[in-house]
Amino acid sequence: MTPADLDEIMEIERLSFLSPWEKTLFVQELKNPRTILRVVREKARVTGYLALYQVLDEIHLLSIAVHPDFRRKGTATGLLLETLSDCRRQGGKTLYLEVRENNHGAIAFYRRLSLVVAGVRPRYYQDTGENALLLAGEIENILKVLPP
Fold first, then answer.
1. Which of 9, 37, 52, 145 shows the smallest number of beta carbons within 10 Å?
2. pLDDT, tens digit (0-9, with 9 covering 90-100), for 74-93
3. DSSP conformation letters of 82-100
4. Are 66 and 12 in contact (CB under 8 A)?
């Protein structure tokens, strides 16, 4: 991901999330050496992206999204697989993320990847007061579930 990608990423954000990130958050994360930011392109167009950070053996997925026109084609799965493989080589062992408790599609996606509910963060989302489920999974197990 580069600053030149941000306009397309912001479009994906607006189409994907109830409360999209502000562009300034992506700019900040681009400057953070612990943050891994990747995009997927199709014919030079950004079709998906991922943001996560790694601290020692813990990986925290900040955001992952695919443009609605390109969903259900394995884009998110492939992007996550490739990134987690790289993180594992850097000592990453466990993936963590928060997801809205009512985002059943995302929860189903993460469960297929062997993530489990590790806790609940009450009223985590400020826009709605909705709880977040804290999901966790061992990267080794996730990589076994994903296709090569």
1. 145
2. 899 999 999 999 999 999 99
3. HHHHHHHHTT--EEEEEEE
4. yes
Give the 3-state secondary structure of residue 110. Answer: helix
Q: 0.85 exceeded by the pTM?
A: yes
Computed over its alpha carbons, how large is the radius of gyration of the chain? 15
Count how many residues are written for the chain. Answer: 148
Residue ranges per structural domain of the chain: 3-145
d(Cα 79, Cα 71) in Å, to the nearest integer?
12
**3-state SS class at 13:** helix
Q: Which pLDDT tens digit goes with each residue over 99-119?
A: 999 999 999 999 999 999 999
Query: What residue type is assigned to position 129 of the chain?
Result: G
